[in-house]
Design goal:
Elements: E1 2-3, E2 5-8, H1 24-37, E3 41-43, H2 51-63, E4 68-74, H3 77-87, E5 93-100, H4 103-110, H5 114-129, E6 135-140, H6 147-160, E7 164-169, H7 176-189, E8 197-202, H8 209-218, E9 223-226, H9 240-249, H10 251-254, E10 256-257, H11 265-276, H12 297-305, H13 333-342, H14 349-365, H15 371-382, E11 389-399, E12 402-412, E13 416-423, H16 427-439, E14 444-452, E15 461-469, E16 472-480, H17 483-501, H18 503-511
The structure holds acetyl coenzyme *A and 3-methyl-2-oxobutanoic acid.
Length: about 500
């Protein structure tokens, strides 16, 4: 059985998804989870892109052990210097440098001849090699590049010291057969190819990123670049969970496996979705909420008689589990903690007490507490940044003949209690305007999304909002059985993130 290396680019290409912006703490949390998932490589960011990205790559390089840590750099000395400054703290650093090789990119974007591009690629690899042994070189838009130029360039960068050559389908144009053929062609026409790892990086513009990556594996690719939940630029990247589970479920066909710890897949997907604010579509393969659900009677009958009649994978393999202990309003802290541990969460002290209190409140309102309810509560708890404002109470009156009115009471810095009210707008709008009136922040609601996390009339609702403050987007998440409360919590969560990133705002409030 061969081994396919999993190169995770959730924190670099994944973060290039429009509207996604992760802060250092969030990136670190995802990176730690990726290490638990046992990916081979974490692409932690693009250090030259911003001071924040640089700091996140450096923090991950310092803290996260296990996987190789890499960061992206254009084929320039400045980018490579900056990447190395961040990566040098890792015990397994890799510099990932790239340049585009298709005629269209070389002519219009780079304004360079093929000879100049080849020279820049070789110089970049040689320069990066001065810092570290492990160098990945990517030929951006490789699929639309002239095959023979590509082979000539790969031969040259391998001679210059590249250890991994990456073949991207940058714009998601390839079909599986064609992409497989390209990998075979490169294997057969790059004389020194056996000295390096062959990697692929596919985009999903035509919905074929996973199929193309697997076709590449069939033709000799040894590393697949992917992102959790398939997030990334435009229609996204190859979905990590889909490639990994295809290899696992169809070992008989591929004869290749990854080293991924499968039972961490579901949890990683939830974490990424919650921190990026990008919901997973219900019918998404592997991690969508319908992926293991059966609605049709004939299917339900089949599954009850024998699970494998309609399930090709066991949900428990990816970390989705059945309730063994039924948790409800009569459950105690031990059973609660035990169940959380089984689900892979370690909550102690104050965090445990607060979550337990919320669990009891929920159990009073909801008959059956499912694992998904628990996950929602815990995620709400562990992803909270320091709360400058704490929501104490909200009251909204609404009806088809009255103006909605909201009253909101908050506590500032564990101390001052402020209350305000507002009338006019929709029932959610009035809450948000009331909160704005209290905080005095001039921010814009860019998007609002609501979803039921669990099923039934008493389902937990999850609200995700994106607030724009100055030029930055802040994602807030709130969970409650009451969607009005979930909406208020999500907004407050985003406001607290704004204050956390702009500490001077809160200091001036404290002084006042
Ligand atoms: C396919 C991919 O996913 S590649 C990664 C894409 N990711 C990103 O772009 C996210 C991060 N990017 C950024 O923050 C910014 O674009 C930066 C900091 C990298 C550069 O910003 P700016 O200096 O303002 O340049 P801008 O982005 O407008 O243009 C890119 C420049 O890099 C050049 N360039 C692009 N790719 C490369 C490369 N691989 N090697 C060398 N130069 C390159 C372009 O030709 C252009 O040069 P020009 O200014 O001489 O015309
Ligand atoms: C830089 C490379 C790997 C890339 O992201 C792409 O080509 O899509």
């Amino acid at each position: 059985m061969g081994k396919v290396k999993i190169f995770d680019t959730t924190l670099r290409d994944g973060e290039q998804s429009p509207g996604v912006s992760l802060n250092i703490e969030e990136k670190l949390e995802i990176a730690h989870q990726l290490a638990k998932l046992n990916v081979d490589v974490i692409e932690a960011g693009f250090p030259i892109a911003s001071d924040g990205d640089f700091a996140a790559v450096r923090a991950i390089a310092k803290e996260v052990e296990g996987p190789v840590i890499t960061g992206l750099a254009r084929a320039t000395k400045r980018d490579i210097d900056r990447a190395w400054e961040a990566l040098k703290f890792s015990d397994k650093p890799r510099i990932h440098t790239f340049i585009a090789t298709s005629d269209i990119h070389m002519e219009y974007k780079l304004k360079k001849t093929p000879e100049e591009v080849l020279e820049s690629a070789v110089e970049a690899v040689e320069y990066a090699k001065g810092y570290v042994k492990d160098i990945e070189f990517s030929a951006e838009d490789a699929f639309r590049s002239d095959k023979d130029f590509l082979c000539k360039l790969f031969t040259a960068v391998i001679e210059a010291g590249a250890t991994v050559i990456n073949i991207p389908d940058t714009v998601g144009y390839a079909t599986p057969q064609e992409f497989g053929k390209l990998i075979k062609y490169i294997r057969e026409n790059v004389s020194n190819i056996n000295e390096v790892t062959i990697s692929v990086h596919c985009h999903n513009d035509l919905g074929m990123a996973v199929a193309n990556s697997l076709a590449a594996v069939e033709n000799g690719a040894e590393q697949v670049e992917c992102a959790v939940n398939g997030i990334g630029e435009r229609a996204g990247n190859t979905a990590l969970e889909e490639v990994v589970m295809a290899l696992n479920t169809r070992q008989d066909y591929y004869d290749e496996l990854s080293d991924i710890t499968l039972k961490e897949i579901y949890k990683t997907s939830k974490l990424v979705s919650s921190l990026t604010g990008m919901s997973v579509q219900p019918n998404k393969a592997i991690v969508g909420k319908n992926a293991f659900a059966h609605e049709a009677g004939i299917h339900q009958d089949g599954v009850i008689k024998e699970r494998t009649t309609y399930e090709i994978m066991d949900a428990q393999i990816i970390g989705l589990s059945e309730n063994k202990i039924v948790l409800g309003k009569h459950s105690g802290r031990h059973a609660f903690k035990e169940r959380l541990t089984e689900l892979g969460y370690k909550l102690e002290g104050e965090n445990l007490n607060r979550t337990f209190k919320r669990f009891k409140e929920l159990a009073d309102k909801k008959k059956k507490i499912t694992d998904r309810d628990l996950e929602a509560l815990v995620e709400d708890e562990i992803h909270t940044i320091p709360q400058a404002y704490e929501l104490i109470a909200i009251q909204v009156t609404n009806g088809n003949q009255v103006f909605p009115t909201a009253t909101v009471r908050v506590k500032l810095n564990d101390d001052v209690i402020t209350e305000s009210a507002y009338c006019e707008g929709g029932p959610i709008d009035v809450i948000y305007r009331t909160i704005d009136r209290i905080t005095g922040l001039d921010c814009n609601l860019e998007s609002y999304a609501i979803d039921a996390i669990t099923s039934g009339k008493d389902a937990l609702g999850e609200v995700i909002v994106k607030l724009k403050y100055k030029d930055d987007l802040f994602i807030g998440r709130g969970v409650s059985i009451d969607v009005i409360e979930a909406s208020a919590k999500a907004y407050m969560n985003a406001v607290n993130k704004i204050l956390y990133e702009n500490k001077e705002l809160i200091e001036s409030k404290g002084d006042a």
